[in-house]
Amino acid sequence: MQSSLQKPNILWISLEDTSPRFGCYGDPLARTPNIDRLAAEGRLYRNAFAVAGVCSPSRSAIITGMYPTAIGAHHMRTEHVNPYTPELPTPYAAVPPAYVKAFPEYLRAEGYYCTNNFKTDYQFASPLTAWDEDGRDAHWRHRRPGQPFFAVFNHMLTHESAMWGDMIRKHTFPEQAGDVARGTDPDRVQLPPYIPDTPKSRESLAKYYDLIAEADAFVGKLLRELEEDGEAENTIVFLWSDHGEGLPRAKRWPYDAGIRVPLIVRAPGLVPPGQVSDELVSLIDLAPTVLSLTGAILPCHLQGQPFLGEKAKPRECIFATRDRYDESYDMVRAVRDKRFKYIRNYYPEKPYLQWIKFSHNHPMFQELWRLELSGQLEGEERLLMHTRRPAEELYDCDSDPYETRNLAADPRYRETLERLRGALDEWRAKYDVWGDVPEAQMTLQMWPGGKQPKTAAPIFVPINSVCHGITPQNEGVFAEPTAILLHSATQGASLAYTTEEGPAPHWRLYTGPIMLRSGSVTIRAKAVRIGYEDSEETTARFCIANQNIG
Predict the structure, then answer these.
(1) pLDDT over 50 at 8, yes or no
(2) What is the pLDDT of residue 4?
């Protein structure tokens, strides 16, 4: 299909740590009227998955269209230092291949006004060239009249930590009066079979439903703003979460609870209302889908694929990974088709539960340990307490949605096991570039000598009948129209420039020569590359005398 929209606007609404516990997904306990209405007006995807069950690796894939293992962004928390584990090769920023960009650059080159409000968490600093606005006040309303926009709004308050406190709320929204309003009856929640059914567990999950209801109000506010601005009919809205819910055996794991996410798309003129799709979608497909729908460049290096529009093609499988998360190393790879999930544990000798300090704050983890230590934990509630893992796991996700019955040793599923083994091996050969490389070795390749590389500062090259583009210069007075080329010696560098003064100018993406036809201008420029330190700012002053603007 091809959208009837011309230069459609794109709105992304991203939630944190959210499985599809919405009314439109059939959850009777959900209070999600705005999300449900969005689904009724568009298409709901039942089989959408993140590439990892934790935010930073997942978000690196979303913003680049590349698997985290292909660009060295697969270890969770590269920028943090833990005083108890100083031997870790952190902090560092992942350094992808030189041609890899944050994909909004391609949209900006097509004239889109790109905004992010306000979480990034890509395993590298948000590039200056990616966004027109990147912060708490970023909004499509700040663009030029008639300019198409790509706007991202990240709702952070469904983060796992909100199930035991209000850390995120206090940090990001200190002006708010208090925690989320309580409205869900703990006695009505349905706990997964691997979570102890205790009052403390129920209270935690009930609060999670309240947080989702709060997120629904956030979605409603954005949709109303679209309508107020008269942009609803010319805007494709995507609603998704960066990974699944923040429960034990969900977040940080490639089980469906950790990687299955809601995905809803409303696209007037492209997607008829009220549709439900069972096709497989990976969040790595978001970037190529948006680029395809907007008519922007669709680079060949992207590892996702469009799932909407003329270039859409179906998926046979999705893939997910688990590596070092916070303090503890691991390596798990998973592949899933519409029915079966295959998981390969590269450290089968390890217990499932390792020391990841942050996760031990969770009330459900505390209940698991309390009951385990008192000898009361039994049955499926002990799944996470096993001190050994099978080398391979295979699940029928239709008949066993909680993935508790491992079929890997069942001869009846031998053909399925071998088929998914082969699919995972093929994927690893193409995309698991850094998976087998020790992190310390990888970081030394990315940051030689343990020092972050720095992008070379831009130089200015004027071109006219006198200056033939041979010698850079930072100032000049010319009697004719002049083109100014910007250049950085760093491979893959992106360039930003501005003619504004002050400490917070709007940086424009450099896409070609800057044409000067009259008057005086001061140009400020920076060069950036993902994972590199930004260049120093350089400045040039030029004057075009006795010429009119053409």
Answers:
(1) yes
(2) 41
Sort 239 into a burial class: Cβ within 10 Å, 0-12 / 13-18 / 19+: buried
Alpha helices, H only, 337-387: 363-373
Q: Taking Cα atoms as reference points, which of 16, 32, 13 lies closest to residue 24?
A: 32
Q: How many CB atoms lie within 10 A of CB 418?
A: 11
Kindly tell me if the per-residue pLDDT of 395 is higher than 60: yes
**What domains, with CATH codes, occur in the chain?**
9-445 (3.40.720.10), 459-544 (2.60.40)
Say how far apart CA 541 and CA 520 lie, in whole Å: 7
φ, ψ at 127 (rounded to 5°): -65, 140
Q: What is the mean pLDDT of the chain?
A: 96
Hey, is 523 helix, strand or coil?
A: strand
Is it true that the peptide bond before 306 is cis, omega within 30 degrees of 0?
A: no
What's the CA gap between 544 and 520, in Å, rounded? 6
pLDDT digits (tens, 9 = 90+) for 375-384: 999 999 999 9
At residue 178, the pLDDT reads 82
pLDDT tens digits along 137-175 = 999 999 999 999 999 999 999 999 999 999 899 988 888
Sign of CA dihedral 346, 350, 355, 360: positive
The amino acid at 154:
N
CB 111, CB 294: distance < 8 Å: no
Cis, bond preceding 118 (omega within 30 deg of 0)? yes
Query: Is residue 248's pLDDT more than 60?
Result: yes
What are the catalytic residues?
A: 55
The secondary structure element, H or E, covering residue 509 is strand 508-509
Q: Are 319 and 282 in contact (CB under 8 A)?
A: yes
Q: Which residues pair with 478 in a beta bridge?
A: 544
